[in-house]
Amino acid sequence: MKKIHVGFLLSYDYEKLKTSIPLVYDYSDKIFIAQDQNNLTWSGNAFYVEDSFYEWIKDIDTENKIEFYKDNFYIPNLTAIQNDTRERHMLSQKMGIGNWLVQIDSDEYVLNFKGFVKSLRKYDHYLDDPKRTPIQIAGFHIDVYKYLDDGILYVKDTCKVLLATNYPNYKLARQTRERVIYVDTYVLHESLARTEEELSMKLKNWGHMHELNTTFLEKWNKANSENYNEIKDVFYLTGKQWSSLGFIEGKNIKDFNQKIEKLDIIRLDKFFLFKKNFGQWFKYKFLKPRKQKLEFEEYF
User: Tens digit of pLDDT for each residue in 230-288?
Assistant: First the structure.
């Protein structure tokens, strides 16, 4: 127990796992890949996985860390986000409570997983009685907005990404609504940085498809290296979490990572993290009721 178990969800964008899995391989004790046994998305649409992907897994899994977990992850009478939440819960149960349960989406690239694991280990005592002391560990997304011929657009507003938990009582996707501990970890996120065809596929099968802001796609199509400063409030759901865009020269994630120090984003210094973590400690110590309804129970 008390191992670092990492889970991925395999679906229509499985090719992105070729970037995300190698970033965590060396510092994970075990990696689980959840795949619907009928190759159906959360919306019930079929996807196909090339045999070459499984051959790639065999080639990179030199330490026999990777295990596929196949089950029925599509229930027709559930919404896409309910199927999302259900699959994540089932995957975490498979990964084993008593370990750090890290879930990373295929289009999320943890830039310093070694450092993230080091941060996790500071909180190993929360694994002694997870049900009594549920927490989540969060880093921060740097969202890649759009690839252009002359560079990359990114979102200036970093936002939290829930990466790990000791107790997976998920309420909505990866959210358990328990106390969050923030750590100094950036995660590059390619959520919208796709071709129009790939983005269309994502939107049809996304857990958040019912929450989409209908204006965001118009802004996404319009944005380029000349007008990005004029385009505001580009979040794909309601709200203004993504207020503005930045631009950097480059072609791909590797170029983006190499220039990350030049990005106009919030820096994760000690004082910033202290404020975030003190606020969470105070909220869950004095303000928030300890008992919450486990909403995922109705999905089984």
Answer: 999 888 876 678 899 999 999 888 888 888 888 999 888 999 999 999 999 999 888 76
Percent of the chain with pLDDT over 70: 91
Q: For the chain, list the domains and their CATH numbers.
A: 4-299 (3.90.550)
pTM for this entry: 0.90
Parallel, antiparallel, or unpaired: how do β-strands 135-148 and 159-165 relate? antiparallel
